[in-house]
Every structure is written in C-alpha cells, then in structure tokens.
Amino acid sequence: MISTRELTKDFAVSRTETVHAVRGISLTVEPGELVAVLGPNGAGKTTTLRMLTTLIAPTAGTAEVAGYDVVARPDQVRRQIGYVGQGNGAGHSQRVADELAGQGVIYGLDRRAAKLRAEELLESLELKDLARRKVSELSGGQRRRLDVAMGLVHAPKLLFLDEPSTGLDPQNRANLWDHILRMRAQYEMTIVLTTHYLDEADSMAERVVVVDHGQVIADDTADALKAELAGDRLALTVAPSNHSAVRRLAEQLPGARDLAIEGDEISVRVTNGPAALPVLIGGAQRLGVPVAAAQVHRPTLDDVFLTLTGRSLRETGTNGKAAA
Amino acid sequence: MTTLTIPTVSRPAASPAQRNLLRDIRIVMTRELKPVLRDPFSLLFGMIQPLVFLGLFGPLLRGSMGAAFGDGVWQWFVPSILVMTTLFGTSTTGANLLSEFQTGAHERMMVTPLSRSSLLIGRALKEMVPLFGQALIVIAVMTPFGFDLHVDGAVIGLALLAVFGIGLGAFSYALAIAVRKQDWLFWVVQQTFLFPLMILSGMLLPLETGPGWMQVASKFNPLAYLVDAERALFAGDVSSTAVLWGWLAALITAAAGLTVGIRTMLRSAA
After folding, report:
1. A232-298 architecture in CATH?
2. ipTM value of the model?
3. Which end of chain A is more exposed for a tag (fewer CB within 10 A), N or C?
4. Contact check, Cβ <8 Å, B104/A86
5. Which tens digit of pLDDT belongs to each residue from A246-299?
6. What is the CA radius of gyration of chain A?
7. How is chain B split among helix, strand and coil, in percent rounded to 5?
8. B8, B13, B111 ranked by CB distance to A55: nearest
9. How far is C-alpha B83 from the chain's CA centre?
C-alpha cells in the first residue's frame, strides 16, 4: 500500500540554515495494516505524512502510495487516499451536512448519492442530530469525528490520520477510536496515523514505527518493541537480610538485567515478566524467604524510546522545532 | 478474525478519471456560496451596500460636479459603483481563505483530487454572484432617476468584471497565503493597495481635473482601463476602443493573478 525509499525532506529556513526534517525514511506498509508513527514533536512525522499525501514534494527519495508515485501521479494518489489533517477539514462557517456531502461530490459522487452517503456517515459517527449545525458550533470531539467522516466519504483504501486525537479528553479519544476501528473493519482500510500519545500507539496500532530526528529508529509491534528493547520489570518486597539470596535467584531468570535494590524492594528486568514472576516467588519460598509483595511492571513505549534515544518521549515534547 | 464477521461496505463509485475544470470550479464555488445562502441576512445587507454609497455619495458628486455632468451623473457613476463593488468584494476574499488555512479546511481540499486552479477560480467567482445581484438592484433602482440601460453593454460589462474579479481575487488569495503567519498584515497590505488603486482609477471623481502626475499614474493602473471600459459599455458604446483596453487590462490581471496565486498556493504547503 505504501512503499518509500530514502524519503528525504529539507526545509531551507534561511539562506544559511537548513532543517533536515526527514532523513531517508524507507518504509513499507502492507494492505490492511494499522501503523502508528510515533515520535516527539519535530521528529518528522507530519512532514513524512505530508509527502505521502502529496501536500509537499520530497527533496530526495521516492514514495509510492496506493500504487502511484507521489511526485509523478499526485492526482491518482489523491483519488485513492483519505486524509485527516491536524486541523479541521470542515470549514467553520459551513453546515455539517453540507460540507460532508460536498466532499462526496468532490470525489465524484452525484449530489443525491453524496447526500445519502453523508447521512450514512453522520449516523454511524453519531453526528446525525448536528447535521444542520454550523461546524464552528460543534465541540472539539464532535468536530474531530466530523473530520474523520470527511476522510471516509469515498471509502478510501488507505486513510492517513495526523494526530487524530490531540486535544481531546480521554473519553472523547476513546470514543473517536471506537469509531475509527469500526470504520476500519467495515471498509477494510489500511490506516497510517501519527501520534505522540504513547498509550494510543500502544493500544491501537498493530505496528509502531518510532521516528526521531527524521529517521526510523525502530519498527515492530508494540509488544515486540517492548520485549526486545525494554523488557518487563519484576519487583519483590523482601526483608533486606534476604536480598542477596533473592538476588542470586533473580539473576538466573531469562534475560535478567538492570538489577536494583531500593529499600525493601529488589527489582530486575526480564524478558517475560508474567512467566518469570512465579518462578522467582517459588524459588524464594523453597529457600524459606517470605515475600511480602510482588509486582510485574510491563514496559511502556516510553521505556522503549528511552532505551533507544536516552531521552524520555514525555520530556522531548516541547524540545526541537516542529517542522510543519 | 473479527473483521470477517462485519459486513464490508461497498465503496462508492470512484471519482472520474478525467477531472473537469469547470466541474471543479462549480464545486468550489457552490461550497463557498453555501454559508451565504444559509444566512440570507448577510446577503441582504451586502446587497444594499452599493445603494448606500449611491445614495450618499451620488448627490455630493452631482452637487459638486453637476456642471460637468449635467443629468449624466448617474450614467457616469453607476458603472463606478459596480467596479467598486467588485474591487471590495474580490480584494477582501483572501481573508476567507486565510481562515480556512488556519482551520485546516484548505489543506483538506488540497489532498482531494480537485484541480489546483479551481480552488482559486471557484472562490473568486463566488464573489461575482452577489455582484450580479447587486448590479441588478442598482440598475433597477437607478433607472427611474434617468439611468439609461443598454442590455448588451451591461451584460458584456458584467462579464468583464467577472474576468477582472478572478484576477483580483487570485491576488488576494496569494496575499493571504503569503502573510498567513501574520494575518493582520493581510488588511494592512490590502488597504495600502486598495485606496491608491481606487482613487487613481477615476472611479469616484474624474481624474481630468487632477494634476498631471495623477493622470500619468493612472495610465499604469489596470483599474482605470476597467472603469473607462465599463462606462463605455454601460453607455451602450460596445465597440469603443476603451472596451478593448478594458478587456486587455482584465485578461492580464486574471492571467497574472492566477499565475501568482497558484504558484503561491503550491508552495504554501511546505
């Protein structure tokens, strides 16, 4: 569905300064995948998306989207894809149903078909009662659902979502995702989204592409990334006199590393936390060591990012210039 | 797989392989007109604006220039009002695009298969629809006061205004896109150009009574040729050379405006 080779974008900020927003990204997305591009602000996520959606031309490299080259056949690419940008696709002075039906006409539906299609989408995205409202009168969550509806009018094979849930409260985010996932199943869509919400990439995407400084630094399922790059952390609370015994047990667990002792708590990173915990507790009991408490901390994608870059994704949020 | 149990929805007919520029222009124009039609009060207000100007400025013009014009003052001033309405309507139209730029609606349309030029032409032409309405009202109101209507000239005159309006609208969009990061600049630049262009066109007061340098300056003002052409057309003088010059000025404005406008628009995404 998408295939890029060494995709690169430089922005000349001034005569002497150039921002290398995207530095040679090669990426393949198969039909039906749901891919999240995760990275801090300014990592090049949006710039990559803008190249794939024909909004800007790459400085170097190639990209084929839905079977067409983005530079040679932007017209064909535009017909195949749906795009939900960071802003509101629906004009604020327009009425909800007008704008949605108008989008259908743009994609070649006749007026009648476009109107029916708009009604269908408003119904399924729970916007039906707002059909005659002006877009500016909608709440943030309603407007975002309308944006998604606009991107779905022509039932595209491939949908791009640029930070779809930024600025929404948790309830609205969950609601939006319910809709996106249902639509995805209905239309058998391939979805590529950018996000800087770790939990969103974690729970929604089947594949996470981690981008930093314009380059792909990791690309796998969230579980695989976490297992390979971060690992689970076990924490056992035992009396300090037993620490050395427990420590020896912990060091024998598969993939054990980063052992740390803090107060009564002894913690260790392992490959598979849920499997290792019973082994550790059982071992302690055989030695007659009472275990007061035991926990498995599953790693987050932030731990992955931290392992990869030495920085936390939460902290980098405000750093670096956001390349539009 | 849960996805297999959910019935898939058939995809609507794909968009036509060949885009039709006229269809795209109509789509953009219809979209722009929708909020106006949904809010007829604003339309009504806009419709009577030229009448206010005619009613308040016309008598002064007649009083001070009556000796020069006699009863022909309306014949001289009505075309001015129509050019002025075009000038104000299309030169401010970039402000609409500016807000669509900021909200994201413009970007959304850039990712659709709509032809790039239709995004400018459709928007500029939208401004001409109320203009035609205003023209009809002005003509209807002024006819009892001795305004002499020549239908052929009036029709050509409005077509000429539409071509000029597309060009001016496109320039206005280019300006809006160029200053989109400091949007207040839009009005500063627009006003800076608007008033000299307007005064140096002889639209409100004849330039013949002004100093020589103003008359020279007006030779470089496309609007001046347009005003002359409109006066000739509304006087029924369809074959006047002023009309030819007017078309030339309008076509050059349109071509230059669209070139600059589309180039600015394509660069703006970066």
Report:
1. 2-Layer Sandwich (3.30)
2. 0.81
3. C
4. yes
5. 899 988 988 888 888 888 899 898 888 889 999 999 999 999 889 999 999 888
6. 24
7. 80, 0, 20
8. B111
9. 9
